[in-house]
Amino acid sequence: MKKWLAAALCTAAAMSASSALAANINFVTAGTSSTFYPISATVCQLWNDSIEGMRATATPSGGGIDNLNQALDGEAQIGIANANLVYQAQQGTDSFEGYANENLRIFAGLYYNPNQVVVTRDSGIETLEDLAGKHISVGAAGSTTVDEATVHLALLGKTLDDLKAEYMGTSESADAISNKQLDGVWVMAGTPNAAVTQIMTTTDAKILPIPAETVEALKENYPWYANYTIPAGTYAGQDEDVPTSAVKLTLFVTADVDEETVYQMTKTFWENWDMLTQTHAALRKASLEEACTDLAGVPIHEGAARYYQGSRRAGVTLFRWDNPPLLGKRRGSDCRQKAILPQGENSPFLQMKE
Fold first, then answer.
1. Residue 84 CB partners (closer than 8 Å, separation 6+)
2. Residues 6+ apart with CB under 8 A from 349
3. Are strands 55-59 and 164-166 parallel, antiparallel or unpaired?
């Protein structure tokens, strides 16, 4: 009897600890002046009001890499980061070399951050190859934009040294190109972007196309890239659609948050979407239909997947793999564009639409 009681108490304690972990959610996004910090505060309040026992807190952070480091350290359970950073953190590559976090899961894909390469019309630049020898701002030193320019140029057999590269922030770059100090500016941001708007309004400029075949070639080594179209009329003087590459901004969650909690969080998040988009304009670029696409093969959390399985709008097709891809597969593997659920009894797998 004593042994039975001791075992029961241990089981109850374990269940209690699990419930406490699931109910205490730290949501990390970026600084307090960022677009997403107030969004996280609204979402946390929504979860707290709607889910019994939920204690969600919005915490300022240093952005994507910091968010993923906090997840690795157990200090955050949900956060935002571009799909490439989530993939690298899960695989333990690039900035996360030696610190793979296989506990990472996707909560939702949000919207795309496309590459926007803006050049003056009198520069003679028609393609990315033509950037060689030109004065191009590739973003502030150490920024994501510098990495984007580096990766795209490498595909063409070029480096930043082939450009007369300048390292400026977007606002400074917009002023410099307007003052004829630059031939072009590389921007990676959602559309419409304020700096690109300024350039296209004050300068005779255009946005270079990055063709679909270039994006497909990028995907061979960098599975987080997606094809994207900047619609005609997004900017002044832009009369035609412009194809380009993009990376999706995601909400990630850790696997140690239990399935039911994440299901309720996902359900509450999307079923209050109209309110969220009315309050926060940045979210209007995201949609449930695109929540499960272009995730670079990072697994969707079982709780989120359960909600998406019940939604015919999310572009999800249910099927089973006899030999599902492993979490540890490297770049360029056949797990690109698939969302892989953790294995387990009766655990389905999801293939996302391309």
1. 222, 224, 247, 296
2. 319, 320, 321, 324, 340, 341
3. unpaired
Which of 298, 287, 303 lies closest to 352 in space, CA to CA? Answer: 298
320, burial (CB in 10 Å: exposed 0-12, middle 13-18, buried 19+): exposed
Which residue type sits at 4?
W
Instruction: Give the pLDDT band of residue 316 (cuts 50, 70, 90).
Output: low
Q: Is the CB of residue 55 less than 8 Å from the CB of residue 48?
A: yes
CB-CB contact of 129 with 156 (8 Å): yes
Q: Are strands 349-352 and 104-120 parallel, antiparallel or unpaired?
A: unpaired
Tens of pLDDT, residue by residue over 50-96, are: 999 999 999 999 888 899 999 999 999 999 999 999 999 999 998 89
In whole angstroms, what is the distance from residue 152 CA to residue 252 CA?
Answer: 26
User: Model-level pTM greater than 0.70?
Assistant: yes
The conformation of residue 347, written as its DSSP 8-state character, comes to -
DSSP H helices, the chain, are 2-23, 36-50, 64-72, 83-91, 144-155, 170-178, 194-202, 212-219, 259-271, 273-279, 302-309
317 phi/psi in degrees, rounded to 5? -115, 125
Alpha-carbon span 44 to 23, nearest angstrom: 12
| Identity of the residue numbered 225 | Y
Q: What angle do CA 67, 68, 73 make, to 5 degrees?
A: 100
91/98 Cα distance (integer angstroms): 9
Alpha helices in 26-127 (DSSP H): 36-50, 64-72, 83-91
Give the separation between CA 282 and CA 111, rounded to whole angstroms.
9
Q: Residues 232-279: pLDDT tens digits? A: 999 999 999 999 999 999 999 999 999 999 999 999 999 999 999 999
Cβ atoms 150, 188 nearer than 8 A: no
